[in-house]
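so my prof wants the structure for this chain in the tokens format not the other one, which i didnt know existed until like an hour ago. anyway here's the sequence
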Amino acid sequence: MKPRFTRRLLALALAVVVAVSAGACGKDEPATGTVVGQLVKVTYLTSFGNLGRDSFARVAERKGFFREAGLAVTIQNGTGTDGVIKVGTGKADFAAVDFAGGTLQVAKGDLDVRAVALIHTKTLAAIMAKKSKNITTPKALEGQMIADFPASVVKLLFPAYAQLAKVEARKVRFQDTDPKTLISAINAPDIDAISQFVVGKPTVEAVAGSDVTMIPYSDYLTDLPGNALWSSGRLLRENPDRVARFRAALMKGLAYTIEHPDEAGTILHEADQTVSAKLAAGEVRLMASYVGWQQHNDPGQRETALAKLGYIDQDRIARTIAILQGAGAIDAGLVPDRLTMWGLPPSPPPQFVTPPPTTASTGPTPGTKGPTP
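here's what i got, hopefully its the right format
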């Protein structure tokens, strides 16, 4: 990518972030690049189902952040790392997918997709088991049956994790499971553990009816980011303004969610009444440290922390590639520019103003036939 084009994208993205933030302060006109009275339709995939970790998209929708950016967003439930495949093949415009898992999919399928924001600063991938199973160390995974699903980042990353954690990967078995019943599989008699994200522990314990032990991948895959926001290379080339507006609105939703976990849980429950608002809020609280947000008494420090949400460090991406290559997960030759279109600068701190009341959702957002150009 030529430096001049990169600088133009950076300037455009920053201008859009400022415009969207200003929209939250009461401006009536839509964000730059939209037609007055119209909203551009886009489709977004969550990382996995409708869980607390993905509630920030529903929050951005309910709080009007997408609308202020001139976007009408259809939120659909994702099913893991295949989200980047759907983005790359035009079945969705945006998706939240684990960065390392997305990288493996790009390397495997030569997909024209790019990460435009990091949602989590380190990987959330983990394996959980009932405490009675006594799976407390990586080595204890040998000889066990782990319930997972085909597009799971936990399964995709396991060979790399096993190499670093000194686990004989061939002695660990994975059983394909329907994503909708993955958590309840922890109670199946032939299952020893399940794949999960670390923030899902409260939900897993509620379903298991007991304490669970957790083997987090971040203990060994120390420099891997967690979920990232992915867009297609085509959309970035043809309409970078739309990507920048969506990114800014979603990051505002993420910031608001971290600051208001109980409200986020309620919003998610109202969108999908099968979700427990309490458990969703618990996931959000556990997720706070993974998005780089901490409570600060000093207003300046707090604003600085909020402003860094989503920032992509190219050196960090290079190290991630090196880790995956060193573990034999991907071949040599992949470079950061192949995975990220730009390294967006820190956004201005979001200004949270209570928007006009909106009608409460009564169920999941209905799906669409595909993304709108």
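also thought this was worth mentioning. The chain has two domains: 3-121+225-338, 125-219.
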